[in-house]
Design brief:
redox-active center, 31% helix, flavin adenine dinucleotide binding, 7-stranded mixed β-sheet, 24 strands, 5-stranded parallel β-sheet, binds flavin-adenine dinucleotide, dihydrolipoyl dehydrogenase (NADH) activity, 472 residues, FAD/NAD(P)-binding domain, alpha/beta, EC 1.8.1.4
């Protein structure tokens, strides 16, 4: 007889493991199936190991500027294998944390690649062939890196983000195709390691989804650090030869015939492909759109007892979105199954999703840009506060960048925030809280922020939007 559960979750990334724990908290008997290590891309090959690498890079940059702080530190250079080892160790520690949490919540775990056998049965065709029956399912299988046509990943010369974070030595030269958050973070890391980095973006700005002023500031700061940044440029005709790669670059500010670029390695970060193949999804009636699983606002698929969360159901492809969708799906299932636990369901606000890029300077944003808000008919107030005017940033010797907020002039509603500079990824939650709790610009401007902190720039930005900034 197959084992039977209230809920089976497929994939133990930040979507799946969080959904499983929330469901267990709500009294469900839960099984989770993972083909690899718990923690998914985020903990093993995404958010966490990249931040560990960037921390090493940031420390090295700091040491290079130590003299300015009155500290004598000559000849600091990266010990690359140790940097990689440390990043792997940090990922391992986080993945073991997920192991602990799943055990603590008494979630039954199965290892293998799951596929649907029928509407209520999952099986593991590649390994134990075991069958699992469940009343509800949550698919949380994530996504993987997209290849450049004609240039499959080989882990040596043609890199995905995964292979780029475990190289054995620092490459002399690296072409990064795609300047979204992943491309930009690797550009920062390898440039600091001493690699000659070329960052190419097809659209007309790096971090294309960010506020134009923020992206332009970042581009200038990258160029100053020796990174070659090409926007409005396409990459074609890839050729692998003698362990190197040659491509044709064509577009803005390049000769009409293009430029041939030869590099030691190419990192392709042009987007993701959902992990929704080989699971018999369409065969059992689950509707896909461009490979992503289509769901309603409760994460229910076209099959009513099967839910889908995280990267596999489409953008925004972010760990915190996957986790919150996991919580919401577990709660929706609990309500649907007649055990509401006093919960009432309200859908997530996708207009208030924080997004951060952990390059140096850091980038953080939420909500509407000035342009979008104006296009939507708002009469906007914009408040901006530069880190040059922040006492804390001055003391840190890190004054590049600004915090900027967009508010509705009539009601004071907080519409968005766009930041670049030291620690901004830690400043963003103040605005996220403001938007979620429907605070006004005045609510934040009249809150006491401790002095001297970087967070004062957020308060000052809101004051500036109201025409009441003191320190500008
Ligand atoms: C280099 C990089 C850096 C990133 N940095 C950030 C960041 O700083 N902040 C941020 O918010 N996001 C970041 N992301 C994105 C983030 O990692 C993803 O949004 C997040 O991991 C999605 O979570 P998920 O649970 O949907 O999927 P995943 O984390 O991909 O987990 C899916 C899990 O399902 C398993 N699985 C797949 N198919 C099956 C199957 N058939 N059977 C059993 N198991 C299966 C996989 O092995 C995997 O463990 C980054 C991504 C990358 C690649």
């Amino acid at each position: 007889m197959p084992e039977s559960y209230d809920l089976t979750v497929i994939g133990a990334g930040p979507g799946g493991y969080v959904a499983a724990i929330r469901a267990a908290q709500l009294g469900m008997n839960v099984c989770i199936i993972e083909k690899d290590r718990p923690g998914g891309i985020c903990l093993n090959w995404g958010c966490i190991p990249t931040k560990a690498l960037l921390e090493s890079a940031h420390l090295l940059e700091k040491i290079h500027s130590a003299k300015e702080f009155g500290i004598d530190s000559n000849g600091a250079k990266p010990d690359f294998p140790t940097i990689i080892q440390r990043s792997r160790k940090v990922a391992d520690q986080m993945a073991s944390g997920v192991d602990f949490l799943l055990n603590k919540n008494k979630i039954v775990r199965k290892k293998g690649t799951a596929a649907f056998k029928d509407l209520n049965t999952i099986w593991l065709p590649d390994t134990s062939k075991e069958e699992i029956v469940s009343k509800y399912f949550i698919i949380a299988t994530g996504a993987r890196a997209r290849e450049l046509p004609g240039l499959p990943f080989d882990g040596k010369t043609v890199l995905s983000s995964k292979s780029a974070m475990v190289l054995e030595k620092i490459p002399d030269s690296l072409l990064i195709v795609g300047a979204g958050a992943i491309g930009v973070e690797f550009a920062d890391f390898y440039a600091t390691m001493g690699t000659k980095v070329t960052l190419v973006e097809m659209l007309d700005q790096i971090l294309p989804v960010e506020d134009k002023e923020v992206s332009t500031f970042l581009e200038k700061s990258f160029v100053k650090r020796g990174i070659r940044v090409l926007t409005g440029v396409g990459v074609s005709n890839p050729e692998l030869k003698d362990g190197k790669v040659k491509v044709l670059l064509k577009g803005k500010n390049l000769p009409e015939t293009g430029e041939i670029l030869e590099v030691e390695k190419i990192l392709v970060s042009i987007g993701l492909v959902p992990n929704t193949d080989s699971m018999n999804l369409e065969e059992i009636g689950i509707f896909l759109q461009k490979g992503f699983i289509k769901t309603d606002t409760k994460y229910k698929t076209s099959v009513p007892h099967i839910y889908a969360i995280g990267d596999c159901n489409g953008p925004p492809l972010l760990a915190h979105v996957a986790s919150m969708e996991g919580i919401k799906a577990a709660e929706a299932i609990s309500i649907h199954s007649g055990n509401p636990h006093g919960l009432s369901y309200f859908p997530l606000n996708y207009d208030a999703i924080p997004a951060c890029t952990y390059c140096h300077p850091e980038v953080a944003s939420i909500g509407l840009t000035e342009k979008k808000a104006t296009n939507m008919g708002y009469t906007i107030g914009v408040g901006k506060f530069p880190f040059t005017a922040s006492g804390r940033a001055r003391a840190m010797g890190d004054v590049g960048g600004f915090t900027k907020v967009v508010v509705d002039k009539k009601s004071g509603e907080i519409l968005g925030a766009h930041m670049i500079g030291p620690g901004v990824t830690e400043l963003l939650p103040a605005v996220a809280l403001g938007i979620t709790q429907e605070l006004t610009a005045n609510d934040i401007a009249s809150t006491i922020f401790a002095h001297p902190t970087l967070s004062e720039t957020v308060m000052e930005s809101f004051a500036a939007a109201l025409g009441e900034a003191i320190n500008l």
